[in-house]
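Bug report

Summary: structure tokens for Integrase catalytic domain-containing protein differ between web form and batch submission.
Environment: batch mode, default settings.
Steps: 1) Submit the sequence below via batch. 2) Compare with the web form result.

Sequence submitted:
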Amino acid sequence: MLYLGGTPWCLCLRKLLGFEHLKELYHKDELFKEIYDLCTNGANEGFYIHDGFLFKDEKLYMRLTMVFLFKDEAHEGGLIGHFGGYKTYKTMLEHFFWPHMKRYVHHLCDKCIVCKFANSKVDLSMDFVLGLPRSKGGKDSIFVVVDRFSIMTHFIPCHKVDDAYLMANLFFREVVRLHGLLMTIVSDRDSKFLNHFWRTLWSKLGTKLLFLTACHPQIDG
């Protein structure tokens, strides 16, 4: 099976609407058509054709006439989201390639108001779903983290008995690497979140911890 940056090709087709339309555009762009024709009899300087699509080094090769798909579907349509220029470029680079790609992605994200707001203010809420049947890996709970601006939600398998240190490692590996450092974290008064280690860690990083109370649960939005 062909993979794009670790993602099965068939899944990429489902993720990006209008994918089949790329095949029609190959023959309308003169430079594109020249490269495409050279690959009809086999790979040529890193370019090759698979299922009618043109690739360069296992990345779908695009021209600026096709980049509207990135803007409409990947950036604004939810395939990637509004993570700013650097993260968006790195994610796109795993699957696609076109000339001056880095410059284009940064230019688009620099003009995107949502990107600027989302990356300047990151507020998360978190909670646990406990008492679930054990998975094959022994996990019996789910750590739920929600970006309060974009409503992006992370469902992270964990153990009910994991302490604050283990939860911090899990949180940085699964959440902070995507969202960056945070302004606020909203949670209930679980012992893990009241732990001295947890509170000291976020205090040093400049993140404000907000705790729910039984009388005022509306703080969670």
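Above is the batch result. After comparison, the two runs are identical; trailing whitespace caused the diff. Residues 216-221 have pLDDT under 50 and may be disordered. DSSP finds ten helices and eleven strands in the chain.
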